[in-house]
């Protein structure tokens, strides 16, 4: 029986792109998102996936695959990552260390060498872990395709807990006083909407409904993989109006061209001049969420506004709203300082148990 008779290619409601499913020769049910809007390409990817599993499970053969070949295939299955700055940065660096290897040769010792090489650059544990995680993601995909028998286990570096950073009113004034003109509307929009940087810099006028005061982010551009509607407050609307007429397609531009990233040299220099060297662009999102909670927005509504996939992601902001605790704040001082000392059996005064 050919793979064409086994593979089902289909679409899902409210999801962009094609999906495919089939039963592998060993009986395992496989379901995948083909990461493409082209039906024929989805069929070809599915057939390739099935045939690779057939070779391994029925014929017992397992051809070698290089790290570079695996990365190329992974990027084909994840076209959104082809435009992701950090992903491409990670993969370029990793190619210098893994590009000469087959994926079957990548074991714990190789991963230790990669870890040590990155640590030698004096970067933070979080950065080292990001590179190791990228390797794990690619190797897990290879395992799913039947290219790899197992993914080597390795332990990530321990990361110190990060404090959530947000702007105070004074810090906001200092930052805007230093920002170059082309970054001001981007940062204003980020603080007004809580959107991630890529959703802002890639925003097109076709995503904006000024009449309904809503912006639309497509599923292939969201972290959760589902489309979201973003209500626009007056600050966001004012920002959009200031950008009208500057470009026929993109909302935010610099010298007539769309801005790819907003956290590069110009951002870092302005931030440092403002004395905010520990403030990242993504902290604009934390600032937005913090202001919501302090102003009384319920956590569940904040989850919807921020398009977080779970309550756990939002819970870190819950402790910032103390309105429900204010009525209890005075309880600690109800026992005044004029407590009558208690006398002991010898008639000597002794301290109160509350001292």
UniProtKB/TrEMBL annotation:
Q: Which SUPFAM superfamilies match?
A: DNA breaking-rejoining enzymes
Task: Supply one GO molecular-function term.
Answer: DNA binding
Reply yes or no: does the keyword Nuclease apply.
no
Q: Which GO terms describe its biological process?
A: DNA integration; DNA recombination
Record InterPro entries: CB (IPR044068), DNA_brk_join_enz (IPR011010), Integrase-like_cat_sf (IPR013762), Integrase_catalytic (IPR002104), Integrase_recombinase_N (IPR010998), Tyrosine_recombinase_XerCD (IPR050090)
- Determine if S-adenosyl-L-methionine is one of this entry's keywords: no
Q: What residue stretches are annotated with the Core-binding (CB) domain?
A: 65-143
Pfam family for this entry, one: Phage_integrase
Per UniProt, the keywords (alphabetical) are: DNA integration, DNA recombination, DNA-binding
Location of the Tyr recombinase domain: 162-330
- Family statement drawn from the similarity comment of this UniProt entry: Belongs to the 'phage' integrase family.
Q: Name the chain's protein.
A: Integrase
What is the source species?
Eikenella longinqua
């Amino acid at each position: 029986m050919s793979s064409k008779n086994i593979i089902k290619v289909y679409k899902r409601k409210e999801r962009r792109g094609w999906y495919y499913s089939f039963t592998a020769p060993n009986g395992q049910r496989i379901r995948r998102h083909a990461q493409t809007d082209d039906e024929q390409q989805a069929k070809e990817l599915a057939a390739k996936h099935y045939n690779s599993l057939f070779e391994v499970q029925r014929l017992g053969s397992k051809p070698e695959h290089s790290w570079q070949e695996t990365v190329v295939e992974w990027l084909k299955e994840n076209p959104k990552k082809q435009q992701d700055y950090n992903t491409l940065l990670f993969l370029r660096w990793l190619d210098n260390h893994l590009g000469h290897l087959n994926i079957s040769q990548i074991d714990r010792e190789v991963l230790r060498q990669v870890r040590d090489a990155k640590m030698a650059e004096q970067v933070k544990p979080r950065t080292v872990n990001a590179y190791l995680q990228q390797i794990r993601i690619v190797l897990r995909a290879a395992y799913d395709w039947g290219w790899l028998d197992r993914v080597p286990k390795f332990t990530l570096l321990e990361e110190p807990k990060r404090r959530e950073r947000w702007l105070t009113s004074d810090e906001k004034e200092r930052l805007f006083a230093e920002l170059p003109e082309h970054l001001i509307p981007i940062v204003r929009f980020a603080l007004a909407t809580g959107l991630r940087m890529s959703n802002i810099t890639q925003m097109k006028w076709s995503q904006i409904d000024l009449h309904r005061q809503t912006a639309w982010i497509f599923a292939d551009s969201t972290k959760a993989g589902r489309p979201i509607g973003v209500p626009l407050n007056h600050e966001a609307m004012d920002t959009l109006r200031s950008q009208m007429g500057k470009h026929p397609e993109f909302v935010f531009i610099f010298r007539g061209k769309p801005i790819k990233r907003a956290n590069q040299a110009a951002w870092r220099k302005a931030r440092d001049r403002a004395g905010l060297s520990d403030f990242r662009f993504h902290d604009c999102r934390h600032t937005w969420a913090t202001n919501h909670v302090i102003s009384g927005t319920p956590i569940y509504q904040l989850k919807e506004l921020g398009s977080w996939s779970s309550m756990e992601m939002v819970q870190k902001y819950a402790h910032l709203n103390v309105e429900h605790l204010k009525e209890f704040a005075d309880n600690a001082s109800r026992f005044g300082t004029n407590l009558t000392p208690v006398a002991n059996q010898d008639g000597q005064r002794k301290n109160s148990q509350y001292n």
